[in-house]
């Protein structure tokens, strides 16, 4: 039987969040609530050294004094921080050497998520450090990396095995007291990834981590630390999906990037957490602090595709401390239904001849609100700083909103800054053109949105670009009548 | 005593000097309460992030103007556009100066707020328009509470103001420090047209703080051109609040020429209430020393098929600080809106600062909205080209800067005013070139 348009329509109407399922694995979960004892207990559970426990406590004490920020252009019911369990880990925790040893139920989950470990091993040359809830359970390609001297492991492992590196760099870019959510994360982070590229080494493969929120009512607080030593290069990928659930889930991650002299870090994210259902119920709260620091001649490039989460509050930033350093930010943020996103970047120019590029594409549909909020700051020492920013918004339907809040602060006469923003909709003539050539409206929109986002999609590593393109289509399905 | 407390406690004394038996009395009493509650804005407020009033508020200002201080016309002639026949409303230290002014009641009303507030003849207009578009923020409420004097301009339906109107506020420095709060009301009827030039001028180095509020109503198809010349001396600070309500197919333009003053803050707000409206906001800022100019604009599009155009150019030397905070809001009903905003800046010194925050808040899908912001320097190649052809460095730079600002100047509709501004720019840039070539 032929597949007609009606079938497609029906399928779209009934389409639920594809990755919304729940894996039943026994977890050992802490009681809800947060106090010093819980922080100590998390630290103890992870067998952390004394300095780490103290570091967490310091963050916790700072957090207690802080207030939740309200300046973002989003409205939501504030999470009750005393009603969250701050630690959960899959409780079968043997050390695996091969994939066969992994709990088959977990493996099944990964399959449904589309992560086939065997396939990835062979195909893409991607080392996957899978974080299921909070503890990493599978690591691949570690040996290949080890040969080059690259350290790629979970952060808890790094605390055990490379304390000197962790101690030196953790909190160096995002201090414990940086903001409310960073402080919370610093106090209770359960796990995350750590990556160190030694001097002059070019990481031979894309490093990748998949995060997943599991276990009802568990907030997830990852901590990622990437250190690229002098003259090294690394491309790091991060992608996420989460099970569909009604109660709001809190996610407050911290990512710190350190690019020493002549190093380059490319950090790509595809975020597709549960955005809530069509009535705006449920969905993940995503409050993330991401920041990188560039020493002389270093480069940090952030690329993000944000399609999920009910609330997104995320500003991947670059501190261009060294002379001739380069910061880049490429972003696509898609909001549909009742999603709200307030995202952007900060480029802080401190060194001479520093350059930054910001390309932000916002697509809003349904009843969603999409804001770009960015800062370009040129300090008085930063001679010959150069910035180019472009923020384009695409609106679909007249119940959504697109907002731009750029802040430009310049204290140096040699600075050259350009900022441009436009807002538009998909032209009827564009759709007509496609229709006329036998491309149905839904496909035409996907095509146009892809074209609109091309500049950013091109920046993604190959295997991510394909996935991201698909994601854009799925997120906007049914949004245009 | 803190300025705020002083103002609040002076309110009773103020009320004794004015007629309390009017509707405006209630508005004033309400406003002083609002001010008492909200006070002066601080840097903690998003809209005041880059501008601090602390240094300005620390002076012990006298709040009530003394009796009329006379000025000789020949001493102040240069502040007038004297080569142009205009109506004039002149205030000296906040008091109306009848011998310097030229008002009219012939078909149109160009007169004083104090008489409009008290005379029965104007009651309807005051009731319908006074304090209707001004929001209830701290500074505006403060002005409302002490509103007594200012310009009152009423152009009825189908009338053309036969000549431009100059509104000039002088402060003589007879007080050690003075606070002025002029309140202007401008109502322009259907199909009518008016051109207004406004200037604040301090004549000595004594500190002056002006907190002005101007309300403008442009009825259907009305045309309002408003020019603000802000070229005051180093100790004069100005907070200029202008609120404009526009009805269908009206065209309102405000040009702000900010060439000096201590701290200058322009709150310029356009509210569109109808279809086919055009709002134009243009500005040139050229400052140096420790001067600070803050342009805070809002254009609120609420109905379909409207346009707005904003173009602000800034040149900042020495330790000057410039702020541009522009906001465009497009409601979801306001389909087919065209809104443009552009802010271009040149920094001439490493001590100068520019903070720019162009914002768009858009809720409608079928719109064309864009904003652009640039910060850069003069083109070295262009400079070299001119120098190699015998134009001095200073003149070459001035020419380039003039060209940079020229876009805004070309929309000034009064030729005499344009050549006056050209002269001001030449003086500002320290060259002797007649730019009207």
Count of the separate structural domains of chain B: 2
Report the strand count of chain B: 20
Helix content range of the residues of chain B, please?
A: 10-25%
**Main sheet: strand order of chain B:** 2-1-5-8-10-12-14-16-18-20
| C-alpha termini separation of chain A | 26 Å
Count of discrete structural domains of chain A: 1
Strand content of chain A: 25-35%
Order of helices and strands of chain B: HHHHEEEHHHEEEEEEEEEEEEEEEEEHHH
Taking the alpha carbons of the first and last residues of chain B, their distance comes to: 54 Å
Query: How many individual β-strands of chain A?
Result: 24
Q: Regions of chain A with pLDDT < 50 over 5+ consecutive residues?
A: 90-97, 118-127, 132-138, 211-218
Largest sheet of chain A: 10 strands, mixed
Helix-strand category of chain A = alpha/beta
Q: Can you describe what's shown?
A:
The complex is a heterodimer of chains A (481) and B (437). By secondary structure, chain A is of the alpha/beta class. Chain A has one domain (5-476). Chain A has helices spanning 5-14, 36-45, 50-65, 104-113, 117-122, 142-148, 155-161, 163-169, 180-188, 428-436, 441-457, 462-476; strands at residues 27-29, 88-90, 127-132, 135-139, 151-154, 193-197, 207-212, 223-228, 233-241, 249-251, 254-259, 264-272, 284-294, 299-306, 311-314, 317-320, 326-335, 340-343, 346-349, 355-364, 369-378, 386-395, 401-410, 416-425. A ten-stranded mixed β-sheet of chain A has the order 4-3-7-9-12-14-17-20-22-24. Chain A has a six-stranded parallel barrel with strand order 13-15-18-21-19-16. Chain A has a two-stranded antiparallel ribbon with strand order 1-2. Chain A is globular and about 65 Å long. Chain A starts with a helix and ends in a 5-residue tail after the last helix. The model of chain A is unreliable at 90-97, 118-127, 132-138 and 211-218 (pLDDT under 50). By secondary structure, chain B is an alpha/beta fold. Chain B folds into two domains: 3-273, no CATH class; 380-437, no CATH class. Chain B has ten helices and 20 strands. In chain B, the strands form two sheets. A ten-stranded mixed β-sheet of chain B has the order 2-1-5-8-10-12-14-16-18-20, with helices on one face. In chain B, β1 (87-92) and β2 (95-96) form a beta hairpin. Chain B starts with a helix and ends in a 9-residue tail after the last helix. The mean pLDDT of chain B is 89. Chain A binds chain B through residues 71, 380, 393, 395-425, and chain B through 46, 332, 335, 345, 347-377.
């Amino acid at each position: 039987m032929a597949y007609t348009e009606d079938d497609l329509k029906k399928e779209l109407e009934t389409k639920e969040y594809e990755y919304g399922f729940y894996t039943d694995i026994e977890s050992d979960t802490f009681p809800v609530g947060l106090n010093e004892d819980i922080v100590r207990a998390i630290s103890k559970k992870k067998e952390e050294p004394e300095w780490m426990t103290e570091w967490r406590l310091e963050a916790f004490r700072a957090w207690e004094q802080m207030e939740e920020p309200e300046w973002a252009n989003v409205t939501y019911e504030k999470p009750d921080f005393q009603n969250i369990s701050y630690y959960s880990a899959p409780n079968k925790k043997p050390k695996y050497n091969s994939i066969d040893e992994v709990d088959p139920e977990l493996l099944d989950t990964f399959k449904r998520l589309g992560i086939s470990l065997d396939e990835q091993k062979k195909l893409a040359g991607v080392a996957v450090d899978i974080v299921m809830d909070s503890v990493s359970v599978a690591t691949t390609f570690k040996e290949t990396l080890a040969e080059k001297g690259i350290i790629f492991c979970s952060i808890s492992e790094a605390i055990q095995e490379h304390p000197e590196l962790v101690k030196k760099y953790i909190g160096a870019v995002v201090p414990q007291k940086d903001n409310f959510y960073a402080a919370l994360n610093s106090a209770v982070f359960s796990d995350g990834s750590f990556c160190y590229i030694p001097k002059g080494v070019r990481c031979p493969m894309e490093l990748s981590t998949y995060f997943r929120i599991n276990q009802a009512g568990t907030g997830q607080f990852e901590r990622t630390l990437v250190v690229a030593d002098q003259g090294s290069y690394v491309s790091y990928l991060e992608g996420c999906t989460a099970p569909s659930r009604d109660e709001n889930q809190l996610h407050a991650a911290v990512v710190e990037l350190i690019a020493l002299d002549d190093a380059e870090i490319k950090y790509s994210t595809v975020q597709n957490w549960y955005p809530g259902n069509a009535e705006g119920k449920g969905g993940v709260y995503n409050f993330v602090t991401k920041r990188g620091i560039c020493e002389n001649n270093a480069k940090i490039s952030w690329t993000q595709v944000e399609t999920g989460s009910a609330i997104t509050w995320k500003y991947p930033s670059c501190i261009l401390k060294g002379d001739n350093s380069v910061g880049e930010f490429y972003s696509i943020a898609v909001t549909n239904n009742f999603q709200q996103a307030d995202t952007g970047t900060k480029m802080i120019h401190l060194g001479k001849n520093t350059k930054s590029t910001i390309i932000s594409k916002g697509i809003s549909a349904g009843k969603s609100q999409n804001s770009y909020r960015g800062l370009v700051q040129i300090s008085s020492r930063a001679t010959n700083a150069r910035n180019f920013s472009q923020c384009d918004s695409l609106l679909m339907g007249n119940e959504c909103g697109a907002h731009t809040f750029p802040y430009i602060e310049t204290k140096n006469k040699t600075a050259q800054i350009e900022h441009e923003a436009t807002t538009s909709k998909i032209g009827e003539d564009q759709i007509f053109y496609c229709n006329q050539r036998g491309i149905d409206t839904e496909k035409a929109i996907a095509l146009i949105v892809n074209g609109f986002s091309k500049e950013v999609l091109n920046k993604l590593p190959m295997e991510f670009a394909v996935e991201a393109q698909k994601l854009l289509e799925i997120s906007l399905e049914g949004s245009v009548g | 005593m803190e300025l705020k407390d002083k103002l609040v406690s002076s309110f009773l004394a103020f009320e004794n000097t004015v007629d309390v038996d009017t509707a405006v009395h209630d508005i004033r009493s309400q406003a002083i309460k609002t001010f008492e509650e909200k006070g002066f804005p601080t840097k903690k407020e998003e809209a005041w992030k880059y501008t601090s009033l602390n240094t300005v508020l620390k002076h012990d200002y006298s709040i009530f103007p003394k009796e009329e201080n006379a000025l000789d016309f020949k001493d102040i002639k240069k502040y007038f556009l004297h080569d142009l026949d205009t109506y004039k409303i002149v205030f000296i230290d906040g008091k109306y100066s009848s011998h310097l002014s030229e008002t009219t009641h012939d078909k149109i009303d160009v007169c004083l707020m104090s008489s409009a507030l008290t005379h029965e003849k104007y009651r309807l207009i005051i009731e319908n328009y006074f304090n209707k578009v001004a929001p209830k923020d701290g500074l505006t409420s403060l002005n409302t509470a002490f509103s007594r004097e200012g310009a009152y301009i009423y152009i009825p339906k189908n009338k053309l103001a036969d000549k431009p109107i100059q509104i000039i506020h002088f402060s003589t420095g007879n007080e050690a420090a003075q606070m002025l709060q002029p309140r202007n009301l401008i109502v322009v009827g259907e199909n009518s047209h008016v051109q207004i030039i406004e200037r604040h001028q301090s004549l000595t180095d004594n500190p002056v703080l002006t907190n002005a509020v101007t309300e403008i109503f442009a009825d259907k198809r009305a045309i309002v051109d408003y020019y603000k010349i802000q070229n005051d001396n180093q100790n004069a600070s100005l907070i200029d609040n202008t609120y404009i309500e526009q009805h269908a197919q009206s065209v309102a333009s405000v040009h702000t020429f900010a060439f000096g003053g201590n701290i200058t803050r322009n709150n310029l707000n356009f509210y569109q209430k109808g279809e086919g409206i055009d709002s134009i906001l243009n500005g040139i800022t050229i400052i140096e020393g420790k001067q600070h100019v803050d342009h805070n604009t809002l254009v609120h599009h609420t109905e379909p098929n409207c346009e707005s155009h904003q173009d602000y150019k800034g040149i900042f030397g020495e330790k000057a600080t410039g702020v541009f905070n522009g906001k465009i809001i497009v409601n979801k009903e306001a389909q087919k809106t065209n809104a443009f905003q552009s802010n271009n800046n040149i920094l001439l010194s490493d001590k100068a600062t520019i903070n720019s925050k162009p914002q768009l808040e858009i809720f409608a899908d079928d719109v064309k909205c864009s904003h652009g912001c640039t910060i850069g320097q003069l083109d070295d190649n262009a400079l070299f080209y001119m120098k190699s052809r015998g134009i001095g460095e200073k003149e070459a730079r001035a020419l380039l800067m003039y060209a940079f600002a020229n876009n805004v100047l070309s929309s000034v509709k009064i030729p005499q005013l344009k050549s006056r501004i050209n002269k001001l720019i030449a003086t500002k840039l320290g060259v002797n070139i007649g730019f009207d070539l």
